[in-house]
Design brief:
heterodimer, A: about 260 residues, alpha/beta, Rossmann fold, six-stranded mixed beta sheet, four-stranded antiparallel beta sheet, 7 helices, about 35% helix, B: about 270 residues, mainly alpha, MetI-like fold, 10 helices, ATP binding (chain A), transport (chain A), ABC_transporter_ATP-bind (chain A), nucleotide-binding (chain A), ABC transporter ATP-binding protein (chain A)
């Protein structure tokens, strides 16, 4: 099966299960999860800590292996990490001995692209995240928000079909977080990538996602999918947005 | 609502010297005070000049020694011994440390014997080395090498092991293989720790150099310290000690300079 260009970035989860060993007892975190994610879709995964949302993202990234089941990308099962996926972590994970430009070019260089070509492409994405004046700066000279932008630029530079984000804004202050949510929306729209985002911030999930996957720690309650049927650009104070947030909070027994 | 100005103008306290002079004094003032006290206590006879000669006498002896070429030979042979040993320790310690830090089985197998060797004083082993290698240069260089190896080796192992797992995972998620992870993440991340080891090793090398030369040599700065004392040439003895201190400072300065160039990202 070959994927044509319009459908590149499709993700299919087929009966995924994963358990961790805790004191010799298997602790299941994902049980028989199946889900189809459309190409170019923005999916948020929310849930309490320990519900397996980060584990799911790591399975998608190929950093961990499922006990059973498959992850298919564009119809093909994944084996480990792949060039069509890029991960953005909660911490920017920049190499402190490299400049912003070198950090952003790192992903391409690791994949065998020459330094000059890699840096040319890196410059484009550094401009995209608004850090053109900081190409020569070292990570320790950057604020938390700027460092995270560098991490985002590094992921975009390898031109992935799928961006995997593990609580990417979780460590930022409230103001920076709001700005970065807008930035992520813009980048997602411009790059046309599939975006899968783990977050514990329900408002962030509604602001960014087309659909929200709610995972639960409770064995009896299965995963639920919620459509975020709101027009873009989204307005956090708009009535429908607020209603959506109330609905999602009710999923967790919150008011 | 009223606006309050919170910034009060900075007042300069009168009578204090300009900032660069002040910075210099606060850093080196005590050293100069110490040297001045030394000089004065000798010339004013607070301490017998026969035991603690004034600085000008020591510097005079140093100059005579260097100008006549007598001390130059000692400096050369000492530098050669310490340099060879240090070079060998670095050449073995860094690669072995990188290997042990990366591969758990290698570390597991080698760690107990290295701990045993490390805890055995190198000076206690010197007679053994003399028995095995003879009284010549080899045993001296070897005992210095032996003691110098461990700081670099252990610092390198520690440096490799404390590399942030998250950075390694990041590199792997971009498809980096083992060799790339090593070259692009582990190695650069270990450099600051390796330098800590190198500086400790340099200090150890000079320490062992003096001990080895005091025990069984007829040349070298350490030999001069002992020899001058036997012959009651106290200014010359202090000159040799001063020379050692100078060598130590110079070695450290070179390493600090190299570290600044290689790890600009981690400093200030």
């Amino acid at each position: 099966m070959t994927a044509d260009t319009d459908t590149r970035g499709q993700v299919a989860l087929r009966h995924l299960s994963k358990a961790f060993m805790l004191n010799g007892q298997p602790l299941p975190v994902l049980r028989n999860l199946s889900l189809d994610i459309r190409a170019g879709e923005s999916l948020a995964i929310v849930g309490p800590s320990g519900c397996g949302k980060t584990t799911l993202l790591r399975l998608l990234a190929g950093l961990e292996q499922a006990d059973s089941g498959q992850v298919l990308i564009d119809g093909r099962p994944i084996r480990g990490v792949g060039t069509e996926r890029a991960v953005i972590y909660q911490e920017p994970r920049l190499l402190p001995w490299l400049t912003v430009l070198e950090n952003v070019a790192f992903g391409l260089e690791v994949r065998g692209i020459g330094r000059g070509a890699a840096q040319d492409r890196a410059r484009h994405h550094i401009r995209l995240v608004g850090l053109a004046d900081f190409e020569g700066a070292y990570p320790r000279q950057l604020s938390g928000g700027m460092a995270q932008r560098v991490g985002i630029a590094r992921a975009l530079t390898v031109q992935p079909e799928i961006l995997l984000l593990d609580e990417p804004l979780g460590a930022l202050d409230a103001m920076t977080k709001l700005t970065m949510q807008e930035e992520l929306t813009r980048i997602w729209a411009e790059e046309g990538v599939t975006m899968i985002l783990v977050t514990h911030d329900l408002e962030e999930a509604i602001f960014l996602a087309d659909r929200v996957l709610v995972l639960s720690r409770d064995q009896g309650v299965g995963p639920r999918l919620i459509d975020v049927d709101l027009p873009r650009p989204r307005d956090r104070s708009q009535q429908d947005f607020v209603a959506m947030r109330r609905q999602l909070m009710a999923e967790f027994g919150l008011h | 609502m009223t606006l309050q100005h919170l910034d009060t103008p900075v007042r300069r306290i009168r009578g204090l010297p300009a900032p660069p002079v002040r910075a210099f004094l606060s850093r080196y003032g005590l050293v100069f005070a110490f040297l001045a006290l030394w000089q004065v206590s000798g010339t004013l006879g607070w301490i017998s000049p026969a035991v603690l000669p004034p600085l000008d006498a020591i510097l005079g002896a140093l100059w005579t020694g260097i100008a006549s070429g007598a001390l130059v030979d000692d400096i050369a042979i000492s530098l050669q011994r310490a340099g060879l040993a240090f070079g060998a320790a670095v050449a073995l310690g860094i690669p072995l440390g990188l290997l042990m830090g990366q591969l758990r089985p290698v570390e597991c197998a080698l760690d107990p014997i290295l701990q045993l060797f490390r805890q055995t004083s190198a000076l206690a082993l010197y007679p053994v080395f003399i028995l095995l290698l003879g009284l010549g240069e080899t045993s001296k260089v070897f005992v210095i090498f032996w003691a110098t190896l461990f700081p670099t080796l252990l610092a390198t192992i520690g440096g490799v092991k404390q590399v942030d797992r998250k950075l390694i995972e990041m590199a792997e998620s971009y498809g980096a293989g083992r060799l790339q992870v090593f070259r692009r993440v582990v190695l650069p991340a270990s450099v600051p720790a390796i330098f800590v080891g190198l500086r400790l090793s340099a200090t150890t090398a000079l320490l062992l150099l003096i001990a080895a030369e005091m025990i069984g040599a007829n040349k070298g700065i350490g030999f001069q310290v002992m020899n001058a004392q036997y012959n009651f040439q106290i200014p010359l003895m202090f000159a040799a000690i001063l020379l050692m201190a100078g060598l130590g400072l110079a070695a450290n300065a070179v390493l600090v300079l190299l570290q600044r160039r290689l790890c600009r990202w981690s400093l200030d």
